[in-house]
Amino acid sequence: METHERQLVMERLASSEARLLELVDGLTEEQWSFCETPDRWSIADNIEHLVVFEGFIRSAIAKTLEGPAEPEKKAEVGAKEPFVLGIANGRSNKLIAREVVRPTGRWPDRNELVFELQKTRAVTVAFVAQTDAKLRDHFFPHISLGDLDCYQWLVVLGQHSTRHTFQIEEVKADPGFPAS
């Protein structure tokens, strides 16, 4: 990973985590579990999803890096860079999470879930800081973008978290959101 790539990923991971922690600080139990509608996720659901998704993607990266490099895919996947960098820019394009990363109440204790978010992010940041793997030569598919390289997947993690900060802001802006 190039120095500027590592810096970009580290910045996106740090800024999205900071914003998430700011958004959940001081919430009541009622606010934490409030759903705008039955088909929407609560703030707790969003945080759980982020924890599970990040672990899922980190595992997929590790498994992909164990396989053979496929440098012939670089040109096709490189053209997707603007889409990867723009994932967080809007919420008009709704994505459906894979079943395996949907929230199920794995961490019913709010403090434990927030700690799990921080712990999960710390593992990702440590990987990004230390890896010398050829991330641009290994690929696996995104649910809507198709193949992305492992570097792009690290960018996706930061962008994905930012996207969910917007979702949490929408929950908090709902007229029915409980008062403190």
Task: Walk me through this protein's architecture.
It contains seven helices and two strands. It is mainly alpha-helical. It has one domain (3-173): dinb family like domain (Four Helix Bundle (Hemerythrin (Met), subunit A), Up-down Bundle). Helix 1 (3-24) packs antiparallel against helix 6. The chain is elongated, with a radius of gyration of 17 Å. The N and C termini lie far apart (45 Å). The model has no long low-confidence stretch (mean pLDDT 93).
Query: Could you give the order of the helices and strands?
Result: HHHHHHEEH
Determine the number of helices (DSSP H or I, runs of at least 4 residues). 7
Q: So what's the overall shape? A: elongated
Count of all domains: 1
Given as residue ranges, the uncertain stretches (5+ residues, pLDDT < 50) are none
Strand order of the largest sheet: 1-2
- Give the name of the CATH superfamily: dinb family like domain
Oligomer: single chain
Portion of residues within helices: 55-70%
Global Rg: 17 Å
Q: What class, by secondary structure content? A: mainly alpha
Task: State the major sheet.
Answer: 2 strands, antiparallel
Second rung of CATH, namely the architecture:
Up-down Bundle
Quantity of strands, as a count = 2
Mean pLDDT: 93
CATH topology: Four Helix Bundle (Hemerythrin (Met), subunit A)
CATH C-level class is Mainly Alpha
